[in-house]
Amino acid sequence: MDNASNKLISLFKKYYLSEEANTLDNTKFRLNNCTYSLESGGSKNKNKVFYVIQRSPGAGLFSNLIFVLNHLKISEKHKFTPFIDMENFPTIYNEPTKIDGSKNSWEYYFHQTSNKSANEIKKSKNVITTNSLFYNDFTSNPKKLRKIFKKKIRIKDKYLKLVQSYYNINIKGNKVLAIHYRGTSYKTSAGHPFPPTFKQMKNIIDKLILKNKYDKIFLCTEDKEMFNLLKKKYSKNIIYIESYRSFVDDAFRIYPRKNHRFMLGKEILIEALIMSKCDGLLSTETNVSNFIKIINGNNKPKFFRIENGYNSTNEYYAMWIWYLKKILPKFLGGFGKSLNYSKH
Q: Which residue from 249, 284, 287, 242 is spatially nearest to 267, judged by alpha carbons?
């Protein structure tokens, strides 16, 4: 067996196998009733090891990005050639037809990490394909991912240009508070942070505006009810982009417009990049806020993390608790008007 194949075996043993794992043969291993294979589709590129990163069906755009970054760290450490395959392993963002000439949903938004094609990689001698698990030793810590992001990730130029144009027209010369409000699914998701009520949001926004003298609010939310309430309340100062919003968690369950799934990724990418250019950001801790910290480091925006408690880990109870706490007075465990936040 050549050196490249030996390195492939070593990687599998280190990252995918526990002490209880059974070696089936030189190229196959079984762990928790799953078999992982070292692939060889041909004789091309004998001196390369291709590291195919997949996460099917995946999750939100920035959850997928953080997953990819962790695997890029592994591939860099072992001098493998990474390739992100979200065509043969589709995600929730994939469209049935090509976007910008590609069926690989990674390439809708980002440049590919290798100049080799998926077809050539399939014909290569040494190929490892990841599974879609997020391992315990993976991280979402922005400090730990910033270096690999700056080295390996390139956002498509057209999105950067759209963001810069929006900034020049709507933000430049103003002091802007960005708000990333996760509603809909967060109201009922077990173990997730509770989103604030409108009364809580109004209370904290007014405090931040008074204290920091913000001129405008850039609002990013998928929750149509909160969007309507905040737009009405801060109509003279609020700015936003036209993105998909709903009253319930249905973004990936319906298909109301052309290229809807691609558009969902495009919109949150643009919104996140705009928020990264604002002076302040009010948000729960999300993959979106972590992405902004990855690209900006300790520069602006100033982060204000919403702290409204966490939902039950029991999925049945989690469906009702937010709605109950919304109507209960604070002395009976309700949310009340106040909202805690911390600077980060």
A: 242
> What is d(CA 212, CA 279) in angstroms, rounded to the nearest whole number?
10
d(CA 76, CA 126): 16
Q: Please report the pLDDT score of residue 35 as a whole number.
A: 42
Tokens of 16: 């995918």
**Dist. CA 75–CA 129, nearest whole Å:** 11
Q: What is the CA radius of gyration of the chain?
A: 22
Beta strands in 124-175 (DSSP E): 127-129
Cα–Cα distances in Å, from 272 out to 16, 128, 201, 241, 276? 33, 32, 20, 11, 6
Distance of CA 213 to the CA centre of its chain: 30
As a whole number of Å, the end-to-end CA separation of the chain is 51
- Which CA distances in Å does 247 have to 187, 221, 224, 251, 262? 11, 11, 5, 10, 20
Q: What phi, psi does 316 have (nearest 5°)? A: -70, -50
The string of pLDDT tens digits covering residues 46-103 is 888 888 999 999 999 999 999 999 999 988 987 889 999 999 999 999 999 999 999 9
Per-residue confidence at 127, pLDDT binned at 50, 70, 90? confident
